[in-house]
Amino acid sequence: MRNIELGHCARKLFFNLAPQGQSRRRCVYRNLLIRRLVLAKLKLAPEKMLSASAAKLRLLKRLHCTMKFEKIASQSGARLIAGVDEVGRGSLFGPVVAAAVILDSGYRIRGLRDSKLLHAERREVLAERIREHAIGWAIAAVDAARIDQINIYQASRVAMREAVLRLEPGPDHLLIDAMRLDCDLPQRAIIHGDALSASIAAASILAKVERDRMVREWDPVFPVYGLASNKGYSTPHHLAALRQHGPSPLHRQSFAPVWNNPVPQEVLAFMLDEKPVEVLEEMNEAAG
Q1: pLDDT by residue (tens digit) across 22-70?
Q2: What is the model's pLDDT at position 5?
Q3: Which residue, of 81, 134, 207, 211, has the greatest Cβ tally within 10 A?
C-alpha cells in the first residue's frame, strides 16, 4: 500500500502546474527533485528491509539451474564433467561435507537447484534419484578438529578435493561452486554455481542430505543443542545452549560463538583415556 500511495503522490507532483507567484522553471526543478526522491523510495525501500541472508536467498530464487556450463565444457572436449560443492561452512558444529557428481547428460533429473532452496523431503527424493542415475558420485568430510587446525575455507577445499579423488570413474573436467581446487584437472569456478549448474546443484543436494544425517545422529548424544532441528547452525536456541552448557567436543572451537562463551568445553569419557602422545601419533598417521 505504501508503494501505491507513493506512486499516486509522484503522478500528482510530476504534472503539477506552477503555483501562482512561482516561475515555471522553479516548479519544474522542484518536481524533478521530488520525482527522483519518490522513485528512489519506490525502488530501494523494500530492499533496505531485507537482511543480507534474505537478500541472497531472493537472488538465488531468481537464478535458473541448467546444463549450460556442462555443455560449454563438453564443447571443449570434456566427457566426464563433475559438479563439486560443499555444505556446512557456516555451521558451529560438526564436519564440513563435500560431494562430487557426474550427471548422465542423457537422463534429466527434474527439480535440481541449490539445496538451500529445497525442503528436506524434496532433497531426500532428489538425492535418491541422483545416486541412482548419476554416472558417478562421491562424498567426503572434514571434521571439526581439522577445521580448527586449518580454517574452514581450507577445510572446505580439502573435502571437495577428496570427493573428486573418490569419484569412479574419474572426471576430466570440474565445475566448482565459487572456488578452485589443488588438482591438475581443468576446472571452472562459478559464483552461485549451485543455483546455476545442474551438476553443482546435484553435489549440493547430496552433501546437504549426508551432512544433515550425520548431525542428526549426534542429537541424542548432545540433546541440549537442538542439533536435529538446527543442524549445528547458530539459531537463538543453539547460541543460548552454548552460553548455558558450553560447547561439545564436536563444536568448532575456532568459531567465535563457540570459544567466546563462559562455560568450558565438554569432554567425552573416551577422550580422558587417551594419552596426548597417542593422539598426536594418530593425527600424524592420518595426515601421512
Answers
A1: 555 565 566 666 566 655 555 544 445 567 677 766 777 788 899 999 9
A2: 47
A3: 207
Amino acid identity for residue 33 in this structure: L
Distance of alpha carbon 170 from alpha carbon 127, whole angstroms: 20
SS3 154: helix
pLDDT per position as a tens digit, 93-140: 999 999 999 999 999 999 999 898 999 999 999 999 999 999 999 999
CA distance readout (Å), 230 to 47, 66, 94, 241: 27, 30, 12, 12
Q: How far apart are alpha carbons 72 and 188 in whole angstroms?
A: 11
H-helix segments, 101-151: 120-133, 144-150
Q: Is 173 helix (H, G, I), strand (E, B) or coil?
A: strand
HSE-CB of 209 using CA atoms within 13 angstroms: 24
* Distance separating alpha carbons of residues 99 and 31, to the nearest angstrom: 57
Place of cell 551438476: 199
CB 232 within 8 A of CB 248: no
pLDDT of 242 strictly over 60: yes
- Report d(CA 173, CA 263) in Å as an integer: 47
